[in-house]
Amino acid sequence: MACPVNNTVELNPTLLPLEWLLGTWECDEPGEGSFPTIKPFRYTETLHFSHVGQPVINFMFNAFHAESKKPMHRECGFVRMQPGTNRVAFIIAQNSGLVEIEEGELTGQQLSLQSQQLARISFAKEPYVKQICRVFQLRPDGKLEQTVSMATDNQPLMQHLRITYRRSS
After folding, report:
1. Full-model pTM
2. Could you say which DSSP state residue 53 is in?
């Protein structure tokens, strides 16, 4: 049995600066992924940001291979804001076995985050991710753009993913 979700709960005032992020976002065109150690790929993705009245936003990101439609990357977690500031934290668990805390700042409708802590399962695949930087930008046309940069044991920080979404609900 699914847990009930009450969509009529008022947004916690701490999160008002992030209200523009709430809802479901779907990519218009496939995003592009690349990194020196993998073959470039295209993917589709749906983002879902919700709340239950707490000073936390819940999120789920689901990516699929653009051609085969097979499930790829999954991320879920929570977004928090430090009250009275523009400081934001993402607490993220990934299906790859990586858990991270990203922190950064909200400037207008741009959210820039950098990994502060990374942990992984003991049998994670090498090379290990060492750093992640993520930027969400709400564009003037109402679309949401996400870029993700990554560094590993053997590669410096560089762009890994780029995708644009439209709000679907």
Report:
1. 0.92
2. S
DSSP secondary structure of 91-121: EEEETTSEEEEEEEEEETTEEEEEEEEEEE-
Structural domain of 40: 13-167
- In Å, how far are 2, 5, 114, 118, 122 from 133, measured between CA atoms? 34, 31, 4, 12, 23
Tell whether 8 is covered by a domain.
no
- pLDDT digit string (tens) for 115-134? 999 999 999 999 999 999 99
Task: For residue 154, give the amino acid letter.
Answer: N
Please tell me the distance from the alpha carbon of residue 142 to that of residue 110, in angstroms, as a whole number: 13
Omega of the bond leading into 83 within 30 degrees of 0 (cis) = no
